[in-house]
Write a structure and sequence with these properties.
The structure is a single chain. By secondary structure, this protein is of the alpha+beta class. It is 24% helix and 31% strand. It has helices at 62-75, 90-100, 115-120, 158-166; strands at 2-10, 13-19, 33-35, 41-43, 51-55, 81-86, 105-109, 123-124, 129-130, 133-137, 143-148. The strands form three sheets. The chain has a five-stranded mixed beta sheet with strand order 7-6-5-10-11. Strand 10 (133-137) and strand 11 (143-148) form a beta hairpin. The longest helix has 14 residues, at 62-75. The chain is globular. The protein starts with a strand and ends with a helix.
Length: 169
């Protein structure tokens, strides 16, 4: 497992990302179990078709809330399934989805093992949270787009991600 310091910051302070650095063109990891809001296991890698996977540190923070709400709004018109992954407990994710009226994004929890965070190289060591990212996976299961937001308190570049999605099949 690799460690990268300074690739992301929190309020300007460098953080350490741990895990395997996955790049555009690599296969999306298979066999990693996340939990749905009702505590059912879900392997994001085995779900076929084009996917947008956005990761956030915690849905209970303003920037994360805004990010997943924006992807929820956009999801209805996209040719892809949209997933939001965080280290929040599934109960907290279910509460957030209800309060936000999020029906177009499936929230998944990596809280138990941080396995997806480690597989993607986005596990923030100091906080035990996922970095803020957007991944687009094509229909063949390959990473077609990867955005790791440099400052944890900043939103991703939605336009860039959606433009990349428009070119994926």
């Amino acid at each position: 497992m690799t460690k990268q310091t300074g690739k992301v910051t929190f309020m300007g302070n460098p953080l350490t990302l741990i895990g395997n650095e996955i790049k555009v063109g690599d296969a999306f990891p298979q066999g990693i179990t996340l939990l749905t809001n009702d505590l059912k296991p879900f392997d994001l890698g085995s779900d076929k078709g084009v996917k947008v996977i956005t990761t956030v540190p915690s849905l209970d923070t303003p920037v994360c809330d805004m990010q997943v709400r924006k992807f929820n709004e956009k999801a209805a018109g996209l040719k892809a399934k949209v997933y939001a992954v965080s280290a929040d407990l599934p109960f907290a994710q279910a509460r957030w989805c209800g309060a936000a009226g999020a029906k177009n994004v499936m929230t998944l929890s990596d809280h138990a093992s941080m396995a997806l965070a480690d597989a993607l190289g986005i596990h923030i060591k100091e906080l035990r949270l996922l970095a803020r990212t957007v991944f687009i996976v094509d229909s063949k299961g390959k990473i077609a787009y990867r955005q790791i937001v440099g400052e944890v308190t900043s939103e991703p570049n939605y336009d860039e991600a959606l433009s990349a999605l428009s070119k994926v099949s």
